[in-house]
Amino acid sequence: MFRITPWVSGALWALGLGLVSPVHAADTKQELKQLDTLQGYNQLPDEKSVKKDMTKLPNQPIETLIVWSEAKPTSGAAPLQVAFTADPPPGVSDAVYTWQFGDGAAAATGQSVSHTFAKPGVYKVLLKVSNASGALGEDELRVKVTK
User: How many other CB atoms are there within 10 angstroms of residue 116's CB atom?
Assistant: First the structure.
């Protein structure tokens, strides 16, 4: 006999009532290519250049904080206004939050910020968190803006 656990039956009920949004459509080939470009995957044309590219990197600080952030909504039609929030890192009272939106707009600061994406595209949003003692953490989010 097949038995459904209570949380599974509750999830099926929520889907049936439309309380849970359906899975978004897969990214198109063009959007995946754009995302690869944003993430730098197209900068490594073959394995022979990886070592050379890795040794030419500037000295960058090592991440010491675990940073979590979220965006609402993560996709929609342009112009798309998105609210970004970051969870405060545990044990860090003087955290400074800097958001880069990937669309050429000026960076914003604050634990919670809002940004409007004017043009369609796939944007990589980068959050950097630091403090006076030099602790550093980063998180990336992806926002998909359609026509």
Answer: 13
Tell me the CA distances in angstroms from 34 to 37, 70, 78, 130, 137, one per residue in order. 5, 21, 17, 29, 25
Q: pTM for the full model? A: 0.63
Give dist(CA 46, CA 23) in Å, integer. 34
110: tokens are 């604050």
Structural domains in the chain?
A: 26-60 (no CATH), 61-146 (2.60.40.10)
d(CA 98, CA 127): 6
**What are the tens digits of pLDDT across the range 75-99?**
999 999 999 999 988 888 889 999 9
**For tokens 């914003």, what's the residue?**
108
Q: Kindly tell me the sign of the dihedral angle through the C-alpha atoms of 45, 49, 51, 53.
A: negative
Question: Beta strand 75-77 with 136-146: parallel, antiparallel or unpaired?
Answer: parallel
Among 28-32, 100-104, 112-116, 129-133, which stretch is predicted with the lowest mean pLDDT?
28-32
Give the distance from CA 66 to its chain's centroid: 14
